[in-house]
Design brief:
mainly beta; single chain; 270 residues; 9% helix
Length: 270
């Protein structure tokens, strides 16, 4: 009977030895971390948005994610309020801090972004963080970071940015709703570059420049929500996020995105 159960639950992954609660169609041996806030079994369904609540990292051995503030929960994910400062973040485990010198990785996140409501005063565009890993004391010290900018005074979305080890790429983005955002970092020869994808489509690629790495301290947490030194985080709900190393043999990033999209988009739309 045990063998039949293992065979049945193992149909959706390539590793039937993983405990049931750590199974996910995306995970392979290169997945660094994965949190899925739309899966109620990953955290306590009683008061899921209270500060201190823990969310299970679905990668084997990954540390729990921890809510740093009281957050709203919309039935699928945690809602960050663009007008709010303070914590407004979820700390991710140390497994989301990549070793120095990783040459190829990607960060992906499912969001239900607000179209408007990003403030209506002033005239300068304002940045809103989505997620990232920031090196304390270095204003540009992001090992990886995904952020938005909003146009003032309209308070509407304007652009999307991904920074990895100091290399930045920006794409126009003015439409909210459910969005699948992925930022990719890759070393090419002695240079490195960043790419941005929206709903699996490549929307921007940086020029290749001299290689550099950001080495966060052990106390620098990876977070979803407000990333230092941003004052505020994006508006809307966060459903699911992952960090994937791509610097060894395995599925391509396109394949990873396709797998994630096929397994999750319909349940997040409905």
């Amino acid at each position: 009977m045990v063998g039949l159960i293992r065979q049945s639950v193992g149909l959706h992954t390539n590793d039937p030895t993983l405990p049931l609660l750590q199974r996910d169609a995306l995970i392979d041996e290169r997945t660094v971390g994965l949190v899925d806030f739309s899966s109620g079994w990953a955290y306590s369904k009683a008061n899921p948005g209270l500060a201190g609540a823990r969310v299970k990292d679905l990668v084997r051995g990954g540390a729990d994610a921890i809510l740093q503030d009281n957050l709203a929960y919309d039935g699928k994910g945690f809602v960050f309020l663009a007008a709010g400062a303070g914590a407004l973040e979820i700390n991710l485990g140390s497994n989301w801090r990549l070793p120095i010198g990783v040459t190829h990785f990607a960060f992906g996140i499912w969001l239900n972004l607000a179209d408007t409501g990003y403030g209506s005063t002033g005239t300068s565009d304002v940045p809103y963080s989505i997620a990232g890993l920031y090196k304390s004391g270095a204003p540009t010290g992001y090992q990886w970071l995904l952020s938005l900018s909003a146009a003032r005074p309209a308070g509407t979305l304007k652009s999307l940015q991904f920074i990895a080890n100091g290399r930045s790429v920006v794409a126009n983005m003015s439409v909210g709703g459910l969005r699948y955002l992925v930022g990719e970092y890759q070393v090419v020869g002695s240079n490195h570059l960043s790419r941005l994808y929206v709903d699996k489509q490549l929307v921007a690629e940086s020029a290749a420049t001299a290689q550099a790495y950001v080495d966060p301290a052990p106390t620098d947490p990876a977070v979803i929500g407000r990333v230092v030194p941003f004052a505020v985080s994006h508006g809307g709900a966060t459903y699911r996020a992952w960090l994937q190393r791509l610097d060894s043999d395995g599925a391509s990033l396109i394949s990873v995105m396709e797998r994630d999209w096929a397994a999750n988009r319909d349940r997040l739309v409905s």
